[in-house]
Design brief:
Layout lengths: L10 H18 L9 E5 L5 E5 L2 E9 L13 H16 L3 H4 L1 E6 L8 H4 L11 H17 L6 H8 L3 H9 L1 E4 L9 H8 L8 H21 L6 E2 H14 L16 H6 L4 H8 L4 H23 L7 H23 L8 H16 L11 H10 L6 H7 L6
Parallel strand pairs: 3-4, 4-5
Antiparallel strand pairs: 1-2, 1-6, 2-3
Helix pairs in contact: 2-6, 5-7, 8-9, 9-10, 13-16, 14-15
Length: about 400
Amino acid sequence: MTTSGTVFSAAPSAAGYLYQARLALALCLRHAYGDAGIEVAVERLDDVSFETDGEARELLQTKHHLRRTANLGDLSPDLWKTLRIWSQLALEDPNLPNRTRLVLVTTGLARPDDATWLLRPHRGTGEPSVDNARTAAELLTAAAESSENQALQPAFKAFLSLTPRMRASLLSAVQVLDAQPLLTELDPIIEDQLKMAVPRGSTERARELLEGWWWPRICQALVENPPGTVSILEMENRIDEIRETLQRNALIADQEFAAPPEADLAAYEAYGFVRQLKAIGIGGNRIESAKRDFYRAFSQRSRWAREHVVFDGEISRFETILLEEWEPRFNAMCDEHGTTDPDSPMLRQAGQDVYHWVETDARFPFRTLVKRFLNVGSPHAGQRAPTRLASRLRQTLPKG
């Protein structure tokens, strides 16, 4: 076990491996609903590879740094470790650059005077230019021939073992994607790719569900011998399942087991529903449960509204159902005890009976969902946002 911040920390290496797997998912989504024959792998032919029938279409080297720095100079270890691998592949198979794209994905930064800057995608075509590849080859050849860096000598040797024409050919297949998102910044990239595949407002939840499938699946591929692949068709099938789950008639109650912050629980002591419950003699544990249901119902309804997964007026209609089911019971209690002394135990018991019905029997659907916390917490949730239901319930507050 290492101490945070020491030179022995394995965190950068661990983040690098996680980055490979998560980046593979983000890049997979580019191919969704396109070429069904594409497969992706991690640590198979390269850090990440895209293949068709076992042949590499795209090989990616990934370099993840916890902090972005301008570290892609002509003697950059990241660059030369990558070029060593690709130079050896090109030496074994000179036609590789003609059929395979070679991509260096890095969180580092290229500088305008560096070869890596020339190998960034051209704004117009999205590909490096032939002239830039030739110039980059000349710069890197000069760097390899003049450098005395012993650690990089094997990489220099591999690159210089190629003929000048082969070096230019190799670099014409290379793309350098610098300043890429960090491991923790891939969420919006994945979600943006999912926008057209899932209902509006559900991309965050879709990403969570997709990653929940992806991590066990890519781990399974990694432990195969040799490492296996994940087909685009597999991913498409999973996205289709997620889309069905997230359809507008299939609301997800993801706040059902949310834990309220202690500060919120303390603040609820001043809320009207807590005063009501105490006035009819409800015990402390049931009040804590009421606070929890209130928090969950309010959070859930707010999230649905924020993500635009509920129809206009749908929350109001649900409140109307709750109100119209509660009112006859409340009115009957008022008729029976209209002349009862306000301090009478009978009146408190009658109030407890009505609340017992709310806790145990009031179960009405919010679209297709029938959830206890929505039915019990929603009458209280109006305390934050004035509604017809809240106004009616506030009439039952004790005076003073």
